Sequence to fold (382 residues):
Amino acid sequence: MKNIPYGRQHITQQDIDAVSAVLQGDFLTQGPAVEQFENAFGQHVHAPHAVAVANGTAALHLCAMALDVKPGDKWLTTPISFVASGNCILYCGGQVDFVDIDPATLTMDLNQLEDKVKTGKYKGVIPVDFAGYPVRMDAVKSLADRYGLKIIEDACHAPGGYFTDEKEEIRYCGDGQYADLAIFSFHPVKHIACGEGGMVTGSKQSLVEKVKLLRTHGITRDPNKMHANHGGWYMEMQELGYNYRMPDVLCALGSSQLTRAEEGLVKRREIARRYSEAFAGLNLSFTHVPEGVGHAYHLYVITTTHRKQLYDFLREKGVFAQVHYIPMHTMPYYKNMGFKQGDFPKAEKYYEDCLSLPMYPSLSAEDQDYVIGLIKDFLQQH
Ligand SMILES: Cc1ncc(COP(=O)(O)O)c(C=O)c1O
Fold:
């Protein structure tokens, strides 16, 4: 029987050689492969600075700390994201609230964002480029300027995604031009698969330096920043940080994967084009991508009122579609904070109907045709 997952990493001999070269070298953790990966990744997403960290969750936590989230501070995110997008604010003692989604893009509805931030209750916002669809960060920034908000862009799904801004310029997801900081994850189902790994990107040197300090216990060895210097061994812990480092071995894997990132994006977009072409006119919905927008297609999501039956039907035939995401505010932990079913109706309706279909660069046309054929068969029976 077929075994087609919704996402899958792709490891080549080149990746294995890159990792094995580090294993045979002098550094297993903070060696030269870290900076090489940071520079290459920064270039890939058009961000002036990039800091490699342990995973996407650590990246979010470090951004929240660098942006000074304090107990009681209220931040907004979307209910349709992985829970880490909200949890990072809770880690700092802050409070999370949500903005419902725009069903056309499945990302945060920016009109509803404005309604919320007008109240003056919020300190910041975490828009998520859900599935790889780029949030209009220029619009978020203009709200942020008007209402004094800080911005962390969760671009985990969108390396290589872009939109055209109000000045008609192409802006890449996570380029740090409009957001204060942005983050990425290198979890195996993501575009760049390292097992674990993450990146913080940005254009503001002082914020990026703060992230670097906090990534490694708040310890500095930079003589220009220390209060004293007792000798070559001397270092100072200046802030309460964490061990959120990404090791050399995984950074080498990341750099090797990056050499195929453009090719991977082309393949993802081609797979999406084939799905959209096949589904046009059928009784299901998918996201339409306007001119000037580059969807990064971490996920290809359809919505259908027969979602559960379709999920089960596909599973029986060896196709492991997935659901992204259970709305964050309906998680028991968030419900205990006062959120309830009905708070964000568009996100809840989306959750009832959504299904992420197989989407990864090594998905063969034959396997994709098999998936499409099954969905067509299913829709004929329902
Ligand atoms: C949107 C989003 N944010 C944050 C994360 C957290 O990343 P990680 O799993 O690397 O901690 C993920 C990935 O799982 C994600 O999809």
